[in-house]
Structure formats: C-alpha cells, structure tokens
Amino acid sequence: MSSLYFPAVSGIRAQQQRLDIIANNLANSNTTGYKAARAEFAALPPQDIRVARAGATALGQVDLGSGVVLNGTSRQFTQGPVQVTGNLLDLAILGSDGFFQVTTPEGITAYVRSGTLSVDGAGRLTLSDGSLLTPPIVIPAGVRVNHVDERGVIYGLPAGATEPQPLGQIVLARFPNPNGLLAIGNNRFVATPAAGAPELGVPATDGWPAIASGMLEASNVDLADQMVQMIEAQRAYSANARALETLDEMLGLAIRTRS
Amino acid sequence: MIRSIYQAASAMMAQMARQLTISTNLSNVDTPGYRQQLSGVNDFREMLLSRVAGADVRLIGSISTAVRLDQPELDLSQGALVETGQPLDLAIAGAAFFTVQTPEGLQYTRDGRFRLDEQRRLVTADGFPVLGEGGPITIPPGDVWVDPDGTVRVNDQVIGRLLLTEFPADAQLQLVEQNRYTSDVAGVPSQTAGVSQGFLEQSNVDITRAITDMLAANRSYALAQRALQIADDSLRLAVNEIGKISA
C-alpha cells in the first residue's frame, strides 16, 4: 500500500529539498565568490504493479514509474560579476576555470574563488578565515605592496626604493571535474578522487585566466532566476501534494465500500 | 451479478494504476530529460453471450468482462529548453537521444547534465561515458564548444561528434535508471536532431494535463466504487430478500 503513496511523497520531498537549496543560494547572493548550487533530480526506475491484462487470463505486469530521487547538488562554476573594491589585495580570477590554492588553519589544502587577501602578523598573505595562500608569499616588514599584475605576480616597494620588486607568484589550480570538489564551508573546496588531480598554472598564460587586483568576484546567484525557480518549486510541491491527497481519497473510498 | 462486481473492481484497479502513473509524472516535473508516461484505460476483449435452453441457443449480445490499464506509453514530445550557461549542459532539439555506455550496454538519455571525469572524458552525472561517433569523448583543457550538429570543439580544434541515436516510432523504450532508457530495437544515428550547448531540456510533464487527468481518475474511481456498492446491494437483495417467507 505504501508503494502507492511513494511517487507523490518522493515528489513532495524533492521539491522541499529544492526549496532548501534555493534558500541557501538566496542567502548567499552577497557572498564573495559563492557559486550557486543546483538540485539534480533523477527519475527512479519503474516498479511492477500487477494488474489484469487484456487477452490473457494470467496476471500481467504494467510498468509504472516510482517517483524521483535527489542525486545531490552540483555547483554552477560560471563566472560571477566582478566588482571594483579598490583594495590592492582583493583579487578576482577573470575566468571560470581556476581556483586560488590555500592551506587552512587545520593544515588541509583547499581551493577558493574569493581572493580577499590580507597580510597577517608574520607578513604572510592569508584569507580572512586564516587560510594561508599556497605556495606562501611573505611580504617582508617595511615593504609596501605596490601592485599585483594579471599574471599573479605581487610587487612590493621596499622603504626608500623607487622601483617595485616582485615578492611572489600566485598560482592557480584547476580540476577536470570541479563539480566533484567537496565544499567544506567558508567557500572553500577540497579535492576528491571524483574531481581529479589538481593542475597548477600561472595566471594569464597558456589559457589560464588572468588575475585582477582591486576587484572581487561577487556571488553568481541570479536573484531573478532563483525567484522563478522558487515559484516553480512551490507549484510543483502543491501539485504533488494534490496527487497524494487524491490517492488518499481513492483509497478511503475503497475502504469505505462496505460501511 | 458477480460479473458486475468484477467489472467495477477492475475499473477501480485500473483507475488507481492510472493515478499512480500521473503522480509519478508529477514527481518528475523538474527532472531534466524526463518523458511523461501516458496511460489509457481499455476494455478487455469482448465476448459473445448466448442463452442456452435445451436445444434452443440464442445470441444475446457481446459484453466486456473488465477494463484494464494500457501499458503506459512514453510521450516523446520535446520538453522546453532552459538556459543554464554551463558549457557541459547539453540539450537535444529533435527526436534523438544521447548515447551512454554503461556496464549493462548502451543506454540512451535526453538528460544532458554532463561533466568531465578524472580522465577528462565526457560523462553523465553518475560517471558513464557519453559516446561520440568514435567512442568516448576526451576533452583537453580549454574552451569547449558544441556545435548544433553535435561537433565538439576545444580551442577551435574538432575533438569529436556526439552520437545522437534515433529510434523507430514503434520502439519500446524502458526507463532504467538516472533518466536513461533502453530500447528493444537498435537505433540509428540521427541526421536531423540538433544540440544546444548551455541549455537543459526540461521534463515534458504537462502539469495542467496531469491535474485534470487526476481529477478524471478520481471521479472514475468513485463511480466504479459506487457501481460496486450497487452491485453488492443488488446481490444482497437477491440473496436475502427474494423469496423470503414472511413470518
């Protein structure tokens, strides 16, 4: 009996999960470097229901579907709009295929899109959550950061000097399957076997995206699109609830036949 | 008399099965590439009734003994294409399917949510290679372009061409898993279907139709239930009241 309810229930559950994902996207519409998530649904293979068939005295089978399942979520790694901040150490990647490589305070190598860098007490370039840029770049005491070029080279101006000197090179990482990356919070991702091995490269060379200093990549959540999806999900939710209700009415009738 | 009970009951079963098909369709309104199932209710083969009284055999007429749900048919009409902007989201306009290599053999899908695996092969969401005309397609780093005819190019170099398979109209397609279908007959490469890159084809479930079908199924079910009740009441009268000797 419960298998009769299952398709409608799976539909209701799927739309609920979709609404959760949309809500999370909306909450992050102002998060630097956030990548919108998408619910990935798949139809479940049919179940066999036995009913009588024409031209046969034996019972035959009719293939009826059995609902939907959420496979998981995938990230939309498309480029978000780039916004000017004026801060030299705000770095944006101008292209969707690349991540900054960092080491988290827990010692894990992680990959991020948001390049909100600052200099910590030891002169190292860090993200706001304390993750260190990897390979590390140290700004010596008394040296002022002058500019960052599109190839990711950081130039500093030592006290008294007139010519900026290169202090370090930022490298980017990319993956065959960025959707296989595991999100660990704070907009950070870690590599997994599904994502493939990271490939490192120098920005603005051999097809690698360039780095823009003084800019940040905003969230790529499209508010209008999410709103439309929310309405769709609500309607689909109602339709599935209606299917459940109808099925329930029908079973109720069957049960009340001799009362 | 018993026959009417069977008929009413078979109608209830058929309408319940129909309702199940509709709710399965509704649960998949957001499943890309999902094809809705359409089901109809049909008579059992009719039979002739005759009255036999000794040597006198007279034809009464034909009767159907029950109804049943037809094997649901896959509605292969085009779903709406929705732009996603993802380079590896592909949609087919036309009657063809993407060809997927799985351990169970070739399977076919309209769900174009593809990605690269760790060997940079084009694969489905659950990791099975999407076939080109020359087998799996391996995509080197760079900008991926998919032409409307299915030709895959990276940095203007042709890598391969997607194998789009078409089936004759009477082919039986069977949903297996992850929005993929198998077919009982071999398909042929499509010459007419086009591919749109950065788009996904939505489910072709028609909500309005599903809701109205659901209302119809519900009412037909109630009607059959009422018929069952009346047949049951008549039978009760026949058994208990006719020929009753009043005290």
SSE order and pairing:
The complex is a heterodimer of chains A (259) and B (247).
Chain A: H1 2-27, E1 37-43, E2 47-52, E3 59-64, E4 68-75, E5 82-84, E6 90-94, E7 99-103, E8 109-112, E9 115-119, E10 125-127, E11 132-133, E12 143-148, E13 153-158, E14 165-169, E15 172-174, E16 182-183, E17 189-190, E18 199-201, E19 210-213, E20 215-217, H2 223-255
Antiparallel strand pairs in A: 1-4, 2-3, 5-20, 6-9, 6-19, 7-8, 7-11, 7-15, 9-10, 12-13, 13-14, 15-18, 16-17
Chain B: H1 2-27, E1 37-38, E2 41-43, E3 46-53, E4 56-64, E5 67-69, E6 73-74, E7 81-83, E8 90-93, E9 97-102, E10 105-109, E11 115-116, E12 122-123, E13 131-132, E14 135-136, E15 144-146, E16 151-154, E17 157-161, E18 164-166, E19 173-175, E20 180-183, E21 188-189, E22 194-197, E23 199-201, H2 207-240
Antiparallel strand pairs in B: 1-6, 2-5, 3-4, 7-23, 8-22, 9-10, 9-18, 10-20, 11-12, 13-14, 15-16, 16-17, 18-21, 19-20
Helix pairs in contact in B: 1-2
Domain Flagellar hook protein FlgE/F/G-like D1 (chain B): 91-154
Organism (chain B): Thermorudis peleae
Keywords (chain B): Bacterial flagellum, Cell projection, Cilium, Flagellum
Protein model, in words:
The complex is a heterodimer of chains A (259) and B (247). With 259 residues, chain A is α+β, with helices and mostly antiparallel strands. Chain A contains two helices and 20 strands. Chain A has helices spanning 2-27, 223-255, and strands spanning 37-43, 47-52, 59-64, 68-75, 82-84, 90-94, 99-103, 109-112, 115-119, 125-127, 132-133, 143-148, 153-158, 165-169, 172-174, 182-183, 189-190, 199-201, 210-213, 215-217. In chain A, the strands form seven sheets. In chain A, strands 7, 8, 11, 15 and 18 form a five-stranded antiparallel sheet that branches. In chain A, α1 runs antiparallel to α2. The longest helix of chain A is centred in the last third of the chain and has 33 residues, at 223-255. Chain B has two domains: 1-74 and 207-242, no CATH class; 80-202, no CATH class. At the A-B interface, α1, β1, β2, β3 and β4 of A face α1, β11 and α2 of B. Chain B: Keywords: Bacterial flagellum, Cell projection, Cilium, Flagellum. Chain B: Belongs to the flagella basal body rod proteins family. Chain B: It comes from Thermorudis peleae. Chain B: This is Flagellar basal-body rod protein FlgF.
